[in-house]
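Quick one - first record:
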Amino acid sequence: MEYIILGLLLIKPMTGYEISRFIKVNLSMICSSSAGSVQTAIKKLVADSKIQFSEFVENGKNKKEFFITDLGKAEFSRWIQNPMQTEKVKNMELSKLFFLGFAEKEQRKAAISGYISQLEAAKNNLLSIKKSGEL
């Protein structure tokens, strides 16, 4: 969550609500968009001096707009340069593989074949992005 917030704040300063909303609309498949998760990460980033905030009043409400610091930029840069590691990706759907023994043989085959097809489609999508030079 912390790196997602750092990345978003590289794009532009945002309020906590804007960060939560952006994650909910655009990144909900990657991480939780709960206000608690976002606020916990924001508090840690502020405490670690990776982000700061300015306060303002809008429509009678006190608001905080967060922005990334040089320390936060350096931390994000270190993180983004590390290779992606598929074995560290957490996906609750993979727990189905663990319990497939409870399914009929044909259901197991279909589930595994379907998952392989999805992985192949994701691979092809990444290869097309790489080929187009977008990476």
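second record:
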Amino acid sequence: MTGPKTNERPGVRAQHRHARMSATKARVVLDLIRGKSVAEARTILQFSERGAADVIIKVLDSAVANAANNNDIPPEELFVATAYADEGPTLKRWRPRARGRATRIRKRTCHITIIVGRYSVEEFDRIRARQAESGRATPDAASARARRVAGSKRRSGAAAEEAPAEDSTAEDSTVEDAPIDEAATDEATAEQAGDEAATDEVVSDAEAEAADDAAGADADADAADDSDGETEKKDED
């Protein structure tokens, strides 16, 4: 007759018997989720790199389903009360070796048991308050996603309201024109007219000088021709 098990806890259980792995490998993963909430335990198992996590997460889902269907307990109020693995029967196989010998292959099995319990009212309220302070109202992934979507919609709506206000401010600043200074405009026009008159005078002076230079050049050419004619007459005489 076996004595009472010291690792038993009140709650809803699920068991996977004759799992094809050693109890030592299963216990390494079970130690990670013992005492955690169901949502946190699932997250740990999903990101675990050990092969035993794939089997243990199925046992955890079965225990949560038993609590929800048989006892009407919401998954948010459940936690892993205890989780343990007992050794099962060992399958003995033989491998041939040299010189007619054979070595034994021991294929271990184990029985995985997970018991989920329900938080007390005080403890559950304390957990909800702590999650609300940290920004997570519930550990449910769907609820967290809904909160993120609602927050993004609020931010996009606020940005859309700020954009028309900035556009209207830019249009108002464009419509407003600076006052025109008529006196400054008249002075600029008078200065431009004075500059044009000075330019015309300079052009006329340059044309007169060019005409005088041309007349002087013609007179010099005529004088040179006359001197050449006189020289030729003297030579003939």
